């Protein structure tokens, strides 16, 4: 970690030490709502990433003082139970589980989490059913949900969620249309009832400070953690991240408004081209009466599920889905989770020191 409490000659000065300690306290104050809610040292969540956010990455993030989140994805209740137990064997720190609301066994998955003592369940993939929110809260855990607009944020709070994530279109994976810059302005000033975490395009601690000062409780990062040393992603997947610039992480194109799939942001490659062909072919089969609308919708969604696994696990970065956010341009090397978090905190502290210097001069 870079030491900023040193003079140019390399020796620590009492004034620099005091400034650093004050800035660290200021950071703790700024994200207190987030750290209290998560039970962590830092209000930094590792966003759940299908195939990537399993026991190793999740425990590494939690052990480093952040909040890891297991991506349940399409796992069965039995597999999820195993993954939670394996994660608990690697960390005693809090971590969460991300469940996709359209999973056909959502209720069972919730019960698996509750039985295992998971304290926070993230419900992703649309507005969650009230029954799931109720079951989680009655089971003693907390619910985190995604709010893609202010009106939905208010509705989710009325439904009983305990915290929100606002995720901008800059993020990797399935994204909405609005940037975090705009979502933050639309939502943060108006939500005080629950902690709100920001996600999408964040790769530096000074950016986190900016959002905390706007009222966020903490930040969720995915892309940077996907390339971490502890991530099980294939070396070729991580190399593709290191090579890529922000402009290479584009959203997939929706061919037909009757199939309003959420766009997926990832690195452009042969796979992203194939997705267009796949949609066109699915559309043709739907129009020919070979597939019902629901079946066609599933066909389109299933394309990405298989393609992500190929990229992450098999290292097929040409035809697989290399989901990545625009922050991929700031991934420069494979770093340990501890180094990534230390760097983020260090950048946040430095930003606060600079701010206080500006006030004093
Ligand atoms: C490879 C990849 C897979 C992802 N899979 C999921 C997922 O299964 N569920 C989910 O809620 N979010 C998923 N996300 C989004 C992340 O949880 C996180 O919110 C996002 O990466 C934050 O933006 P950033 O990539 O700019 O840091 C995924 C992101 C990436 C990069």
From TrEMBL:
The GO terms describing molecular function are: dioxygenase activity
Keyword Flavoprotein applies: yes
Name this protein carries in UniProt:
2-nitropropane dioxygenase
- Its domain of life? Bacteria
Query: Which InterPro entries does the annotation name?
Result: Aldolase_TIM (IPR013785), NMO (IPR004136)
Question: What keywords were assigned to this record?
Answer: Dioxygenase, Flavoprotein, FMN, Oxidoreductase
- Keyword Oxidoreductase on entry: yes
For this protein, the record's SUPFAM superfamilies field holds: Inosine monophosphate dehydrogenase (IMPDH)
Q: Which CDD domains match?
A: NPD_like
